[in-house]
Write a structure and sequence with these properties.
This protein is α/β, with parallel strands linked by helices. It folds into 3 domains: 143 residues, Rossmann fold, CATH 3.40.50.1220; 45 residues, no CATH class; 41 residues, SIR2/SIRT2 'Small Domain', CATH 3.30.1600. The strands form 3 sheets. A 6-stranded parallel sheet has the order 3-2-1-9-10-11, with helices on both faces. A 3-stranded antiparallel sheet has the order 5-4-8. The longest helix has 13 residues. The model has no long low-confidence stretch (mean pLDDT 94). The structure holds nicotinamide-adenine-dinucleotide and zinc ion.
């Protein structure tokens, strides 16, 4: 682990981690902003990921939505990387109290973290829009459960949708409230793998009142000048625990 980061962690008692898509790129799940994602989506679908993954697009064009969604947001073989493992270790030794994530891949829980606030929901959870029956990701991905790629509830025949927050939809207030509470209690906030240009990411940092703000991101962010420590490197390498 980066020495400066380790020193801050050693001197902290209530660490909260706040992360984005960059946390999972080393698990081979591409982010949108720094990878080819934006460009590719425009070329293949004539729209940006934000447009395709919006509520209005989903309502208008379910077949294309699910085609894009299944090809670009579901990575069933993805495994936690060094960053997820380090965060799991920090929870086990009692230093890390919560993770707030914009990711929808479930990798923090897979790594063993138990207090995870998923601001944008999870691709692992799905529900029928009419009768609310719950389905897992295998159900959604199995063609036998779909009509032209759109998953259909086996109880009532309505559309099954992922429990993720689409663009234009509002965040779950309980999850948001929990995230704000944890961030405002933290003595150290480690922010990683997020560009901090979109709401609510940038807004959440304002609730932090602790001692150490650490930013770990490959590229620069608008908050770099507010941080005590900025590390512009790969997060898995920066956080890797050498036991
Ligand atoms: P974002 O704006 O948070 O950008 C990702 C940031 O991570 C970039 O600034 C990039 O420089 C940085 N980064 C990439 N790999 C890194 C690494 N290995 N180490 C350190 N920094 C790294 O997120 P986005 O890509 O614009 O995605 C927008 C939203 O889409 C997300 O908030 C999320 O809801 C969803 N999304 C989720 C996943 C996922 O669940 N894994 C993946 C893609 C997009
Ligand atoms: Zn149903």
């Amino acid at each position: 682990m980066d020495k400066r980061l380790k020193e801050i962690i050693d001197n902290s008692e209530y660490i909260v981690f706040f992360g984005g898509a960059g946390v999972s790129t080393e698990s081979n799940i591409p982010d949108f902003r720094s990878s080819q994602g934006l460009f590719k989506a425009r070329k293949e679908y004539g729209a940006s990921p934000e447009e395709i993954l919006s509520h209005s697009y989903f309502m208008r064009n379910r077949e294309t939505f699910f085609d894009y969604y299944k090809k670009n947001l579901i990575y069933r073989d993805a495994k936690p990387n060094k960053a997820h493992e380090a965060l799991s270790y920090l929870e086990k030794i009692g230093k890390l109290k919560a993770i707030v994530t914009q990711n929808i891949d479930g990798l923090h829980q897979m790594a063993g973290n138990t207090k995870v606030y998923e601001l944008h929901g999870s691709v692992l959870r799905n529900y029928c829009m009419k009768c609310n029956t719950k389905y897992d990701v295998d159900f959604v991905m199995s063609e036998g459960n779909c009509r032209r790629g759109v998953p259909i509830c086996s109880k009532c025949g309505s559309v099954v949708r992922p429990d993720v927050v689409l663009y234009e939809e509002s965040l779950d207030m309980d999850v948001m409230g929990g995230a704000v509470r944890e961030i405002s209690k933290a003595d150290t906030l480690i922010v990683g793998g997020t560009s901090l240009v979109v709401y609510p990411a940038a807004g959440l940092i304002r609730y932090f009142r602790g001692k150490h703000l650490v930013l770990i991101n490959k590229d620069k962010t608008p908050y770099d000048q507010n941080a005590d420590l900025v590390i512009n490197e790969f997060i898995g390498k920066v956080m890797e625990i050498d036991l």
